[in-house]
Amino acid sequence: MVTREDSTFLEYHEPDIVSILTLISFFFFLAVSEWVGNKVLRAGLIGQIIVGLIYGVPIGNILALKWQETFLTLGYIGLIVIIFEGGLTIRLDLLWQNLLLSTTAALLGVLTPIALTFALFYAGFGYGPLEAFIVGTALSSTSLGTTFVVINSASSKHDFAQTRVGTVLISAAILDDVCGLVLVTVISQLRDIENANLGWVIGRPILASGLMAIVTPLAAKFILGPLFRLPAIETRFFRKFGHVANMVLMVLILCAFLAIAAYAGASVLFGAFLAGTVVSSLPSKQHVHPNPRNDTTDDVDDDPKLTRPTFPDTFERYIQDAQRFVLQPCFFASIGFSIPFIELWTGEVIWKDIIFTILMAVGKLIVGLVVPLWDFVANRKMPPPEKALMTPPAKRNWAPSLFLGTAMVARGEIGLLIIQIGLNETPHLSRKAFVIAVWAIVLNTVIGPVSVGTLLNRFGSAVAEDHRWGIQAVNSGGEVDGKPEVVSEGTGTVAP
Description:
InterPro entries: Cation/H_exchanger_TM, Na+/solute_symporter_sf. The chain is mostly helical.
């Protein structure tokens, strides 16, 4: 299908049958592999990564390169949508209440892998300090996409995004991504380290991310919230046009935050998460008709007397299926495209990587220790009569602690991005160190979801029903822990 350079339009040609059958088989095996992965490993994304390996450059190279690049882009859009949904459904009240705890967990999850990498690579394997820094940075990341997918698909009985430990997990993963962005920017400047302005290189993404994190909730509460309450907007637009109005607002906010984050020097993934939290925080009153019709009819959007659909309703109805069956599989397949599979199988690489993978898994599992430590501090502040009635923390919080630690293990797309920048844009990373790092990223991306799926399958109820770390109730008066708040749109969560 070739278009002449002087043509003013794309010439239409019927795709050849080989391309058609190849693409059909690709999407078919993505769906089948997810089902098999869920049944066997309780992590369907592993099957989709394997399909990406087979159809991509690493093994079979069955798909044309232009298609692989297209699916990589679609997959990244899928990642953005996954993270936007995470911000849309997260408990904002728990997010703010546990910000210090999340920051502690994030710093522990970043610094520990870097320290362990220096100990092994620099002192043990004899690599240079810059090489150890690049590898440690790649393994300090946490896969946001994998984190959200694992939480959403872990159990049909409980929504772990609504638990306290799930909120801490998401917040820590987001902060890990911000730290990873800063370190990636530093790594990309290592090519010309003598002439680089490291103060601005390091400071820009930190400043941009910090300002966005501070300004966004203030703008949502004092600007967007009051505007949304105006009768001219809420009644004449959102109640009248329903899903259409919700879609327009969600797309506009998401695109605005992606552009702001990109041009300011922050992560677009961080921007997507903030966009979701802004939409989630918009206050709204339900408008219920005495005899509402089925929401599946298109007339809902045209009748202002019916219940105005919430933003999560709109997301579920119009976006979720495309995300689940097209964009999300493309994202995990694109991870498979990026794995140098053939180079992984040499004796020296394998034994070094086994040691390194174990160390990197431990480096993230340590994050789970913040749960018993936080309980220990809380119990010390508790009056003696109440303390006597409490279950010993060691017996109570092991399941939430293990859930937090194992869910942080997956590195995924962020780790692969960082290590490839280190290889392609700096002269400091050797091919062998790159391959060892890729092995560790891949194995941890497999170990993490499988461990989380197995844990929640057996002890999911213990995590969700834990009175401190499980699902935290919001009472009918919109109060959390006795403090009245504004209940946010659609999710029953509390706006900041």
